[in-house]
């Protein structure tokens, strides 16, 4: 298996630290709003990588974080240490508590994760559950001389770490921030490890620390949690390309400054998703969510299929017409599998050596493609070439279902025209009434009953949407 390593900037053979075992960490969402389809492209890349590793026989421990504190609004302007906490800002606007906001959007994220066929991480860890670990890591950095104090917090001194920024192009992008640099910082690239609560404001999320009441900086959580669950050195760290310039170099610096060991062996970064050839943003009204796809009549597997059509390291252009094409392709593949599996009871004829050889060739070519730096577009090309070949249809279906362990399209369970049972519709109505009455605990119990019946419910501004729950 070969991977492009953002650290070495080369495609090379993947060799784990421990034979047969892989530790992998992915930067998860900041849960202050719905996660959009651009974010999910990043999580899709991680999911495909985990599926492929497991298919290849590796035992994978997959960890993802949930950022529910410390990610400030200044990050949008080029300085993640300035501005207001995104969770608390969302809570203020919506008249909720920060914990309610984080809980709501975490549940929405997991619902979307399930509907897109993304495997849940083995460990899903929240920043607010690991404050002690983050404080301990900052204390060690301070003891080793890598941290210093200024009026608004404890900062990492990047000049003390000579290799700072080797993962990114920071030397080229230095000074690109659109906000004024904090004059107290020793170096513009220095970053917050622990922020003090403002003296004139009581935050909803703040904790006692050796330096006073405050909250962790955005970057420290990933180092603290990844090393807790995967060790001081592990195999793969994945994330979007936007994290390569600052967040991930900060992780490397603060982790290796404490351990004096290589932090991560392979860095995997996914490219952005474009919309109609341009950028995605709230201001443009095109930061679409999975729920938006439902409203347009598209299934979540159409989006998953669309993600597969472009190399993860190249931009993918999202348009409604491209999604329609992906939906059509997915439906054809699902229908092919359904119709051929319906005839499984039919006896199979003994295959000729020629056709057995073709089957083996298709299997080899598909695996060579996806094992070559996750070349799923080429893998899909092999799938369709195989479907059009002259090997028996039942063997085609078997190959597709075998490969779907990696593709994750849920073809074994693909259904058409699924009817929502009356009991589910009734439960959804009851849950909606409970939520409007502020009885969120009871509403959550109704949601769990709905899931136990094989469905998921998504809350949207226009009301709940019911979908089939996919394994």
UniProtKB/TrEMBL annotation:
Pfam families: tRNA-synt_1e (PF01406)
One GO MF term: zinc ion binding
Assigned EC number: 6.1.1.16
GO biological process: cysteinyl-tRNA aminoacylation
Cofactor note text: Binds 1 zinc ion per subunit.
Binding residues annotated for Zn(2+), in chain numbering: 27, 222, 247, 251
Motif 'HIGH' region: where in chain: 29-39
Enzyme class (EC, first level): ligase
Catalytic activity: tRNA(Cys) + L-cysteine + ATP = L-cysteinyl-tRNA(Cys) + AMP + diphosphate
Family (UniProt): Belongs to the class-I aminoacyl-tRNA synthetase family.
Protein name (record): Cysteine--tRNA ligase
Gene: cysS
